Amino acid sequence: MLKRLIISTLFSVAIATAVLFTQKWYIDSVNEALSYSINSIYLFHFIAFIAIIFSIELLSKKLPDQVGYFYLASVFVKIGLFVLVFKDTLFSDSPLNFLERISIIIPFFMFLVMEAIYSGRLMNAVDNESNSKG
Predict the structure, then answer these.
(1) The whole model's pTM is what?
(2) Could you give the CA distance from residue 93 to residue 34 in angstroms, rounded to a whole number?
(3) Taking Cα atoms as reference points, which of 63, 20, 51 lies closest to residue 118?
(4) pLDDT tens digit string along 68-110?
């Protein structure tokens, strides 16, 4: 459990850092500026990623058959919290341009994919353990 959490966390940090710096480089190269902090969006998604995979790990020990449902519910909670935390950015008086919108979507989907991969692998590992016991 701990090894899987550490490896996933390090992998997500490496991927997120690479994508963040690439995104910042592109924004600078087109001489644009975002009306919000992209770092705070990445930080939010990283903290949510850690909370979700840690919760999924704990749940898989108690209720292994419910991991998929919990993951789906956690995605909706994450979206709700994101909208709540970043409501001033999302619902500002001035509309977001394309670069600002895509800069919000990229980290969301990147972390969503990493959470889905982690959950899928965990469900397969739990399924393989139960099949080998019974």
Answers:
(1) 0.89
(2) 15
(3) 51
(4) 899 999 999 999 999 999 998 888 888 889 999 999 999 999 9
